[in-house]
Specification:
Length: 77
Amino acid sequence: MYLTVEETADYLSVSVAYVENLILQGKIRVLHDGEGVVLISKDQFKTHFEQLEKYKKLVEELANEPIPEDKDIKDED
């Protein structure tokens, strides 16, 4: 499935200017149809969203990890 620049910005939850900048940098592959419309393949973002999910899980695991006791703390009551 192909998206326009505006649809891609909505899909990625970023601004249109940011998507255009990524296109100019060559980080997003595009196709140009005969009428000058820029089309972007939705499949190229599959890995991006998989990496985001892995990162979210890692952050959640780190947030839920208990804080170890400090060995230097002495009970001086």
